[in-house]
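Q: Convert this sequence to structure tokens.
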Amino acid sequence: MPGSQLQSAEPVRRAAVVTHGKPEVIGDAVARLEALAAGASVEIVADESARPDLVIVLGGDGTMLRALQRYLGTGIPVLGINFGRVGFLTSIDGVDLEAGISRAFAGQYAVLELATLDVEAGGERAVSVNDVVATSATLGRMVELEWQIGDEGLGSVACDGVICSTPTGSTAYNLSNGGPVLVWGLDAMAVTFVAPHSLHARSLVVSRSREVVVRNRTLDVGVTVLVDGHELAALGTGGSMSVRLGDRPALLAVLPEATFVNRYRETFAS
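A:
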């Protein structure tokens, strides 16, 4: 069940590596990592088919999301080394690669189970690690979104869109639109409207037992559904999406000191 924390006790023997799409961003990080692996007798493998004990990400939060998505359901945790701008999901700064990875290879990390979202829209299905967004398909045009939680309707909101976010994604687009920050480990999602034309459209935190349904009630503007920033479906008038907490958690590996509170303080509160 999402929300639990498992402490690793076994040294790493195999590791996979996921890197930023632009090699110049990470510089010589791959060579540094390979040298450490050789010294620790850790085999660097190509992908999940070789059953690595740990996935190491060299990049920022975007690369972390890509890796968490890729290894979802495999039981293999993902540990991040920050070569990005924010790196909220990472545990190790790029300049501290050697010290941090040496500890990780020795098994000195914890594994957090992070809630995900299952979404169905326009006949398409997907799993989100960060957020699901239903947004106006026409820049500058508002849409009217009817929404409900479970079988209980909550009316319609004129807005630019709506965000359903996991605790992992609550510090991203959700936060920038005034939504609540959810601590890692909560088994819940936040629902936040984007630029609502209303004084009464407040964010809600929804539990596992409830499904959120959003329907496009706009007569002349379509809605685009995005999952972790990637387009999933287009909704015409009357089209709908449903979002619920998923059954498969994402596994985030962290060094013991890289708690949510410490990461939050360093990133947002300083």
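Residues 128 and 253 are 18 Å apart (CA to CA).
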